[in-house]
Write a structure and sequence with these properties.
Layout lengths: L13 E5 L4 E6 L10 H16 L5 E6 L4 E3 L4 H9 L3 H19 L5 E5 L2 E3 L1 H7 L3 E4 L4 E3 L13 H4 L4 H10 L5 H6 L5 E2 L4 H9 L10 H12 L7 H4 L1 H7 L5 H9 L7 H12 L2 H14 L5 H17 L1 H12 L15 H5 L9 H9 L5
Helix pairs in contact: 1-3, 2-3, 2-16, 3-4, 3-15, 6-14, 14-18
Length: 374
């Protein structure tokens, strides 16, 4: 691989390299923060992928990080929290704008993108991961949308990619449950499981002889990765499917909420942890997540999804639970958030006094349908 000076102009925490056969390698390099995303880095990534989209020399892109501990553990929510406290909400929204523009670009990308999802792949990291056609995990991967713990909500396209997975997606969003490679592959979040070292897998794809594949570049990569794929034994997610379907019916918010919390005496550690996450999590996040899943089931275009999420994010970071949730988990680390208290744990009881109304008619119709607004 060659270090081209002009490729390293994008951002000090991004390594961008040119490899043979039209490949480019992009690496997140923020190991101390588990490669957390802030506005500067998502803006730089957006420029990288826009440039590569228009560059005829580029055939395919490999995206990973410099450490096996995490591909990307999410957005830099501490920084976002500080912006909100400083009453710089517009600056916080700029981060979401750039992040969602990057996710949207990748969902609509014409060239193959491979993401090596080793270690933690969470929040904004999972948003990037899910936007690529080739999503590789290893036996050490841990995937989640854990926003219930910090009073945000599953964004970065999760409004649709959780809804696409039915009850499992709803359960994952409400509980922030961590998925192993087995679970991620089982529900189609990951396309391949590799127990081979990253550099060997990377070399194999870089060595692809495109001329052997008149069917196209995507087929060439798929065949190569299929030869490296190694199935693993079922994980806690697969072993809990019957329970998930019984507690997450997606018909009545209160039923689902109480049924999941009722798993506090389940035999499985994983289910008990899910129950605890929801019980200790932000009720406003739970209510919002449940409604977004309902909206996402209507299968909206990615453009519409990110348009809605942009407005919902603006609403959510102004909600007291966000600043408090990040404080409790990531700033003071006392793990004792004081969420807003509600007299009734229903959709209207939680969201009715300050509903997340947007300019998107189908969302507002849903709020009416579930009695959040009149």
């Amino acid at each position: 691989m060659t270090h081209s000076p002009d490729l390293n102009r994008y951002h000090p925490d991004l390594i961008v390299e040119e490899a043979k056969n039209g490949w480019r390698v992009v690496r997140l390099n923020r190991p101390k923060s588990l490669h957390a995303l802030d506005e500067s880095i998502v803006t730089a990534l957006l420029r990288v992928f826009e440039d590569f989209h228009h560059d005829d020399q580029v055939k395919a892109i490999w995206l990973d990080s410099t450490t096996p501990k995490a591909f990307c553990a999410g957005g830099d929510v501490r920084k976002l929290r500080q912006l909100v406290i400083n009453q710089e909400v517009e600056a916080a929204n700029k981060f979401f704008e750039q992040e969602y523009a990057l996710d949207l670009l990748l969902h609509n990308y014409a060239k193959p993108v491979l993401v090596w999802g080793e270690g933690y792949v969470m929040g904004g990291g999972l948003g990037l991961f899910m936007a690529a056609p080739f999503r590789l995990v290893t036996p050490h991967s841990r995937l989640a949308m854990p926003e219930i713990n910090i009073g945000l909500y599953p964004d970065v396209g999760a409004t649709r990619f959780l809804a696409d997975r039915g009850s499992i997606g709803l359960f994952t969003g409400l509980t922030g449950s961590i998925m192993t490679s087995a679970g991620a592959y089982g529900i189609g979040w990951a396309t391949h499981i590799c127990d081979t070292h990253r550099d060997i897998v990377l070399q194999k794809v870089i060595d692809i002889d495109w001329n052997h594949y008149p069917a196209g570049d995507f087929r060439a990569i798929d065949d190569t990765l299929n030869s490296l794929h190694r199935p693993v034994a079922p994980g806690p997610l697969q072993n809990s499917l019957d329970v998930i379907y019984s507690v997450c019916r997606g018909v009545d918010f209160k039923y689902d909420y109480e049924a999941i919390i009722g798993l506090n005496d389940a035999r499985s550690d994983w289910l008990r942890q899910a129950s605890e996450n929801l019980q200790k999590g932000s009720p406003a996040t739970a209510a919002l997540t449940w409604l977004l899943w309902q909206w996402g089931k209507q299968v909206h275009s990615w453009n519409e999804v990110f348009e809605l999420e942009l407005q919902i994010s603006d609403w959510k970071i102004r909600h007291a639970d966000f600043v408090e949730g990040v404080r409790a988990r990531l700033v003071d680390k006392d793990l004792s958030p004081e969420w807003k208290v509600y007299s009734e744990l229903s959709l209207k009881g939680i969201l009715g006094d300050c509903p997340p109304v947007t300019s998107i008619a189908s969302w507002n119709t849903l709020l009416k349908q579930y009695g959040v607004i009149d």
